[in-house]
Amino acid sequence: MDESGYFAYSEDAKLLTPSIKNIRSPAILLNHLSRPTTLIINWEKIDTVLLDMDGTLLDLNFDNHFWQEFVPLTYAKQRGHSLTEAKTLLAPQFKKMEGQLEWYCLDYWSEALQLDIVGLKMEIAGLIAVLPHVVDFLEAIHQSSRTVLLVTNAHRNSLGLKMDKTCLNRFFDALISSHDYGYAKEHPAFWPLLQQQHPFDKQRTLLIDDSLAVLTAARQFGLEQLISISKPDSKRPKRVIEDFSAIEDFRELMKGL
């Protein structure tokens, strides 16, 4: 266990290669170990668990494919462009809204692109998938006495579609969309509003989210227990994350739960 009393790694220091023995950051250490590690949480010090949805519980492949391939393809067909032309036209529009609430708002994009975004999502809803061992983790945490909240930037229509598809809603005390507060999770104003409506102790709350920008905002707010996801998209390579502790598989959090 580290000096904060929350996280520790099961690997013995003797297993480290000489080149990384001096690495002190747990997050950096986790990504340099020569074989898989287990992130151990002192669950006795956690009362509330905040869980992101896309890229944390659900495979981000759905959203990446939807916005990077399916929407541009539909946009191209509607306007007589090639797929390459459509992607070129859409890229700056998407980039401009990154991190803002509009980026996650289906109503905004339906109007901006003149497309039925909700309908398009339903067309490829078969791609919505739960990441490995998420259900096992949710079942375990649900059976504990902790408060478990789904906290997502997803628009309510998207949230509803994905809960209908996966039935994960049964594991949560509340499903929270940042659209309810008028700020994306990346915005500092979001976190006080969340805490006001769903009171939690910053020191006894665990947030798991694949977005480094969201984790950074939560850290600035004062949340101490933060974990990222190193493989949010099953079709893409594992990410190297150095600023936060990270897991690839939710089994890494099961010990002691």
Kindly describe this structure.
By secondary structure, the protein is of the alpha/beta class. It folds into two domains: 46-59 and 130-253, Rossmann fold; 61-126, no CATH class. The protein has helices at residues 26-32, 61-79, 83-97, 106-113, 117-123, 134-142, 156-166, 190-197, 212-221; strands spanning 7-9, 39-41, 48-51, 147-152, 174-177, 205-208, 225-229, 245-247. Strand 4 (147-152), helix 7 and strand 5 form a beta-alpha-beta unit. Helix 2 packs across helix 3 (83-97).
Please state the structural category: alpha/beta
Q: Which strand order does the major sheet show?
A: 5-4-3-6-7-8
State the end-to-end distance. Answer: 16 Å
Number of helices: 9
Features:
six-stranded parallel beta sheet; alpha/beta; 2 domains; disordered N terminus; about 260 residues; 9 helices; Rossmann fold; globular; about 35% helix; single chain
List the helices and strands and how they pair.
Blueprint: E1 7-9, H1 26-32, E2 39-41, E3 48-51, H2 61-79, H3 83-97, H4 106-113, H5 117-123, H6 134-142, E4 147-152, H7 156-166, E5 174-177, H8 190-197, E6 205-208, H9 212-221, E7 225-229, E8 245-247
Parallel strand pairs: 3-4, 3-6, 4-5, 6-7, 7-8
Antiparallel strand pairs: 1-2
